[in-house]
User: What shape does this take?
Amino acid sequence: MKRPSIRILDASGSPSAIGHAHGSAYAEEIRQYMNDRVDLVASGLWSGGPISRSDVLDIAESMLPAHEAFDAPLYEEMLAMASAAGITPAEAVVVGGFTDFVDTVRAVVGGPMPESVIEDDCTAMIVPDHRAEGAGIFGQTWDMHDDATDHVILLRLHPDDGPASIVFTTTGCVGQIGMNSEGVCVGINNLVGIDGTRGVAWTSVVRGMLNTGSATEAKDVLLGADLAGAHNFLIFDKEGVGYNVEAMPSARPLQELAEAPIVHTNHTVYSESTKVQADKAPGLMDSSQSRYDKATELLAEGAIDAGRVFDITREPEAICQSAVEPYHIESSGAAVMRPSTGDFWACWGRPIENDYQHISFEPGTEPVVV
Assistant: This one.
């Protein structure tokens, strides 16, 4: 499926103004997406056992204090988005931080990990400056159940208090992948943990990290967050400083960027985080390992520019995923960022089928196909 352009929402001003712009622009879509997500949790397919809708939302409600404590202005933005979209704050937690939310629900409900959990998404990489002709590059696919693809958007944000940012996300979600005008990039891979808490969802943590001025500051935000669930975070800045953190609620092993590119997919590689990683279905583990191996192989030699990273996200055998039975996972989009130059490229849907577009920080400007 080919779409001519990724959808971009320009929003500026106070947190409430930004949230209202987001919620009002996509109100019906947010409500639909939220109901789909609540139904998935209630069914038990992703959450350890069937529970009532009211119990789902009670758990989400119990996580609101952690979101407010983590970043009060961002919490204000989330509440304004929810109000404009006609959903409750608890429903905003579900639609905006689904994969962490189900980690929390599984910890509350208990019981065995359901085989239907399919949180297998994203192949990500950081290429250090010396391998990219002095201008290091971050790139990743964003892979999810194929019903998420139509909800992919970009937020181009110019807040009153803080750096501007371009944020790859989905409707109703404050942020998933992004770069700010200070040259700080944040990307992610999902992990599945057994140590979920009633904490703050990873999507809010991404936005909190994008309100900093360096990779080191962003890393400190992550290490200090009361996390709800498990994600891997990749952090990179215009000075060439980079980190990879397997961030579980109870463990956060960290790798600093050195001579070799960093590649990460959807399984832990450090013993500290592996201890609290849920078992993965063999097919999903094979997918994660094969994507890791293929990306590592494709980055092994030679200078690397943005075009080469585009091509890696389009690799058809492992990395650029197609929706097939039984999991229906596909590459719903991709982002490539060069923080030292402020370049941001995004692709809607499967990169092998769609164009990358260069996105300017300037409000109102149209993306340029590359």
User: Anything to note?
Assistant: The mean pLDDT is 93.
